[in-house]
Design goal:
Blueprint lengths: L33 H21 L14 H23 L6 H25 L12 H5 L17 H22 L3 H23 L1 E2 L2 E2 L1 H9 L7 H15 L1 H28 L7 H23 L13 H6 L1 H21 L7 H33 L7
Antiparallel strand pairs: 1-2
Length: 390
């Protein structure tokens, strides 16, 4: 999405204590965390609902309009899981293996991404919109720069944000490992700098009725430098777990008291964005508040004090496994379903149409997962295996 968005590892990580409550469908010896599976499954479900609504598959009361926060949930999960991978060797006094890290990331994200990009490039009649950003932007993962809605494959903006973030994060962590003083300064600079930058950009894009929506999309919603809050909060959680185990235990114990505040903060942030026009306050504060709310939910999902960590929801692990493929194919599938419904006079807002969209997206995602993602993940497992933990 973002998201996480969305293109993060399946919900198993070196950052968490293994639980024998489920096995990764890719490999028979990989354990899963049900709480993280649930969050990732929820993230892709609400994102698909949000994008389906853009094509007419709306929910009663237009609650679908809030589904974009699934990308922010993807971002928090991504920061926690991938940040944990990078921080794990540093916590054991070992250097980050950049070659292994980037090789594993490439096997994870590139194959399925380029398959779908090829569909968009060479089968333009399949696109959900005729217009599309230049192909070179997608190849170099900068498609989120100078982007606006209403273009084909625009949802890949969140993948660009993550690619750019994980290109720089290992280098930042290596720097911090050698000069520890900036370790607290850098995340503060990123978060506070993002707040200041959004304030400046919101005021630069003021219209008669608030912040221009086109300006907000182009300069605030899509660019990497204004969307780093959830990724940074996820990495901070991973850093606390790895380097401050006492703080982490306190967080785990506090989890029951964080669930309602986290939900309330997210709801209030969404409330800020309600109204007939977009305010400066919403442009500035929505993203960090939602990021904090999602970070609180992540803590609740991994805490042994809450049931989320222990109870498997049927289907959640599978949906979490195919979430990246689902994120890639969703708009293509929704577009085809919309055409089918129009051809056969099926009401877009009917229960059958809404259910059909979801099922079709996950069916197509499963095909992409088993045909492309899984073989390359298994190849990665052989060529660039996980480091052996001592």
């Amino acid at each position: 999405m973002p998201l996480l968005a969305s293109h993060i590892r399946n919900s198993v990580s070196e950052t968490t204590t293994p639980l024998r409550l489920g096995v990764d469908p890719r490999f028979t010896d990989r354990e899963r965390q049900p709480g993280l599976d649930l969050l990732r499954a929820l993230a892709i479900i609400v994102v698909v609902i949000y994008h389906a609504a853009l094509f007419g598959f709306k929910l009663p009361g237009r609650v679908d309009r809030f589904g974009w926060i699934g990308v922010d949930l993807f971002f928090v999960l991504s920061g926690y899981l991938i940040g944990g991978q990078l921080l794990a060797p540093l916590a054991r006094g070992r250097p980050i293996d950049l070659r292994r890290f980037f090789a594993r990331r490439a096997f994870r994200i590139i194959p399925a991404y380029f398959v779908i990009l090829a569909v968009y490039a060479f089968l333009p009649s399949w696109r959900e919109y005729p217009e599309m950003s230049p192909l070179w932007k997608f190849v170099f993962s900068v498609q989120n720069i100078d982007l606006h809605g209403g273009t084909a494959f625009s949802h890949a903006w969140s993948l660009a944000v993550e690619d750019q973030f994980y290109l720089l994060l290992p280098l930042i962590l290596i720097l911090v490992s050698r000069w520890p003083r900036p370790r607290f300064i850098i995340p503060c600079v990123i978060v506070l700098g993002g707040i200041a930058l959004r304030a400046f950009l919101a005021r630069q894009n003021l219209a008669e009725t608030g912040v221009s929506f086109r300006g907000f999309q182009t300069w605030i919603y899509y660019p990497t430098w204004t969307r780093l809050d959830p990724l940074v909060f996820g990495v901070i959680l991973a850093a606390i777990e790895k380097f401050r185990p006492q703080w982490w235990r306190r967080l785990m114990n506090l989890a029951p008291w964080l669930l309602l505040p986290g939900l309330a903060l997210t709801v209030y942030a969404l409330y800020l964005g309600e109204g007939d026009y977009l305010t400066v306050a919403a442009s500035i504060w929505q993203f960090p508040m939602i990021a904090l709310g999602m970070a609180a939910l992540l803590v609740c999902a991994v805490s042994p004090r809450l049931i989320l960590r222990r109870v498997k929801i049927p289907g959640a692990a599978f949906i979490a496994s195919i979430a990246y493929s689902a994120y890639l194919v969703q708009k293509l599938v929704v577009h085809f379903v919309a055409q089918f419904c129009s051809r056969y006079n099926i009401t877009f807002t009917s229960a059958a149409a809404l259910l059909g969209v979801e099922l079709c997206v996950y069916a197509a995602a499963a095909m992409l997962f088993f045909a492309v993602e899984r073989p390359f993940l298994q190849l990665r497992h052989r060529i660039a295996p996980r480091p052996i933990r001592s």
